[in-house]
What does this fold into?
Amino acid sequence: MHKILTALVLVALGGACSKTEDDGGPPPGDGHQAAIRDRRTPDPKVHQGFEYDGEPTYKFAAPVRCEFPKHLFQAAVPGKPQGRGIVRGWSVDFWVTEKYVGMAEYPEAKYTAFFRDAKLRGIFRENPMNRGFFDKWIVSQADLDWQVAPQPGR
It folds into this structure.
């Protein structure tokens, strides 16, 4: 009986250890900073209807592994609650300073870009009224056409 229990425990542990963990794919490549700039400011002269006074300045942190709430990448459907869950990938914190014609320079603003499978999937700001992991982020831009593929064994 002892040998049977030991065998069952080993099989269970072996199965748990052999599952591949979803790690979000490879880190963003060398062009990730340009991808962030292009997504955030597609027109280098105008942003959200205001004319730039010079080019915005960007500072970037190194990519790090991260987890984001999956609902940030799903379009809201009235009357239907958004699903819970996480998606793993890579985040790149970045800071932007902008000045517009006829206005004072804006203070430096912090954003976080999310990459999955080495592709930019969204840009977010931290929610000042953060009440936990699922409420931490405000969407600045998100790729709602991208669907998080189900992972094996989940």
Summary: The chain has two helices and eight strands. Helices lie at 2-18, 32-40. Strands lie at 46-47, 50-51, 57-60, 64-69, 86-97, 109-116, 119-126, 137-142.
